[in-house]
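2024-03-11 09:14:02 INFO receiving multi-entity request
2024-03-11 09:14:02 INFO entity count = two
2024-03-11 09:14:03 INFO echoing inputs for audit
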Amino acid sequence: MLITLLNIFILLIAPFLMIGVIKKTKAFWAGRKGVSIFQPLWDCIRLMKKTSVYSKTTSWVFRVAPLIGFVSVLFASLFVPLANGEAVINLQFSFIIFAYVLGLGKFFALISALDTGSSFEGMGASREACFSTIVEPAFFIALASISALSQNYTFESFKYILSEAGIYGYLLIALMGVTLFIMLLIEGCRVPVDDPNTHLELTMIHEVMILDNSGIDLGIITWTAAIKMFLFEALIANLLIPLGLPIISTIALFLTIITILSIIVGTVESAIARFRMTHIFEFIFIMSLTALLILALVTYRLYGN
Amino acid sequence: MEYIILSIALLFLCAILNLFINENWKLKVSTFFVFVSSLFALVPSLKVLIFGTTLTPLMFNSPLFGTITFSMDVLSALFILIISILSSLAVLYSNEYLEPYLSKNRGIAFHCFFLMLLIAAMYGVVIARNGLFFLVIWEIMSLSSFFLVLFEGEKKETRKAGIKYLIYMHLSVIFLMTMFAILTNVAGSFDFSKYADVLIKNSQLANLVFILGFIGFGIKAGFVPFHNWLPEAHPAAPSHVSGMMSAVMIKTGIYGILRVLSMIGVPGKTLSYLVLAIAVITVLYGVLYAITQHDIKKLLAYSSIENIGIIGLGIGVGMLGMTYGNTLVSVLGFSGALLHVLNHSLFKGLMFLTAGSVYLKTHTRNIEFLGGLIKKMPYTGMMFILGSVAISGLPPFNGFISEILIYAGMLLGIPASEISLFIVLIISIAALALAGTMAMLCFSKATGITFLGESRTERVNNVISDVGITMLLPIGILAFCSLMIGLFPQYIIKLVLVPTMMFIDVEMMNDMFYSVVSLTQHLSWCFFIFLLILILVIALRLVINRKSKEYVTWGCGYDRPNAHMQYTPSSFDNLFVSTLKPLFKRVSHIKKPKDLFPKDAYFELEIEDIEEAYIVEPIIKLDEKILSKFERIQNGNMQQYILFGLIFLVVAIVGLILFGG
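2024-03-11 09:21:47 INFO inference complete, emitting structure
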């Protein structure tokens, strides 16, 4: 019971703190003092209280899309092992459900962007849709290869990498970590793929899709985005947490890894400028490459002898 | 069994009746007859599917065909179920859709006649068990659908599409004829059960027959590279016909492939890999071109190709399971494929019918001219969005269920096998995932550009109201069925699990069925949790309803936005298309602005089918080159033709005298 409450807290509130840590890190590298790590949470609460402005062009799709996005991310989180190392729903083939449910949220985000009739938002939708077509197969190749090792088709298969792959396990974990980290940057719309703080509409991807959302809708969308990014961090954390630790140290390790990952994201954002739009594809293809390397490694492990 | 024959007889009766009654009554009478006949077909097929029995075959003796057997086993029953549902809904829809064409001497009589004939022939195809008779019905089906495509035959492109369709169908018949000729020659009878006896013993013959059958039926189903007729015939036909063709008729191709597969026993390794490879190509090719289309029905036609590819993936996985003796993989693959057959009929029917409603109201199929339709046609718009979600395979709709079954089959097929299989399966998984996201891109474009945003032209502004209830009802039923299969897959899955019996050991059936049903059961629970959270969140959102106001869309401070500022379909897919440049042939028609005061200028981008441009057209050109040599013979001179006849007769008689003895 306590664990469940903790998980709910972690899922709903920790994403804001994660964004706060990222902001703090960026401020640190820029030599600023930066805002408190609770600021994203206050921002969201403030947004929730504000009046919404809706474009006359929009229909019900525009109003319902943020909610569906939010629910899809919440639902997807049920399949990801959180603090205690266990997913709420432990169903076989859950990584497929995870990907497709996130897809549902994305579909509604895309059509809600088109619903405003704005040229900017159409542009954002076009980019978002295009990038995800490259991300998805890589994700599936990586996950299918990993699950072939342990014949476990959930995210729990991460835990068996070491026991199943022996010495190659470390390499697999590293490759998987890189794959998921790139996916985190893409899905979480972080630099170098997308800059959440940019002010020019023409260079945005995700932010430009939500130009017309305001008030409570915008609050929900920022919350959704934070949780989504948090889920990918949680996946990476699951890679690194070994099996069979006591529950307290699992939780402690989980939170530490999340914090370290957020600091890494912040550092990457400070160190790299965002790529030109045409170069983003090359960056995403790195993910396909690592996924193929995972496939090659698993193939060698399974059939090498 | 008698009921289904009765239902076919009713359809024939109605076809004849249609030629004599008053024009205004034709559609209503046809609807009535189709509903009654569907009922007669639906009930026995459900009985067969639920109890897993085969009805006692009916046999007729005829001097020409030998014994004609009609039989309904579980595989036929599933297809009869689909045909009966879709045909009645499509005919109901046609009532209002064809209203503008009434009393304009447009040949409604012939349209109804061939419509009835098509439905009857589709029933016939799936229950006939006599090779020659099967071919005859197959031909009736192709020809009647050809005449249905030609409904608006005064348009040049419709005629072109119709003729292309006819040619492709006859290409298909050539392969099927060869197949049946070989089989009959070896088996000594036209009967399907005799074919099976022969094929089980002779694996080389089985391979040959399967390849011939796969090409022949594959042309009908629309597997790449035999798909070219689809994107032209579907847009040309009236919407209820294209709905029926895409949702049901191309599935008879799938039926044929499965029927041949059930006759040959366990397929060889090469065959299974071949099917899987073709399916992967079909999936990706279909969706890739679907993204680039601006003609909504052409887009849907390409998406049909994609979905046929998904069905093919399921069949391929099932065949691999058979080859490697992994029954669970087999069951998952085949049940996924069969469920996708059902699902695709539902949501593709839905999409074609909604596209038809759009066409009826706006008189255009080009989505560049549309936009903002959801305000004018709220119900149609909502159905289209639901259909898009379902067709992109997103939960909690039915498309997801069949896709996850196929994924499951692929994933479970991986262990305990060889390296080539491992790589092939992972590639197929990646292909299916890629197709899924591309379908999402494609349908977010179709929905967003057609129904959302601002209207781009007057065509939308002139729309006064949504379509009537007789058009909305069939669409609504299809959407409802799609959602229900998504939410309660554990009940529907039983209907498609029973037909997989044709391909696996009956002894192991129960265990396998149990594991598949329990998987869908869990999915169903998951989706209910999803719906629960969704309802909770929406309720919360309604409770904390903040004040809101309305203003124009953000345009960098410019507050007089107009519809032409929106993203167009070409610009929406441009990033994607330009990334994959080599895969498309882009033809642009440009008229540049000239002079100091430029007047008219335009730019039009067309994306041509690369397979047609680089493979089919060169073949046709070569053909023309060779055949033009024979032009001299066909010179229109009657005397010469009589001379040719005479020469032929003389040669034939001399030949007979010399070699006949």
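2024-03-11 09:21:48 INFO post-check: The mean pLDDT of chain B is 90.
2024-03-11 09:21:48 INFO post-check: The first strand of chain B starts at residue 58 and ends at 62.
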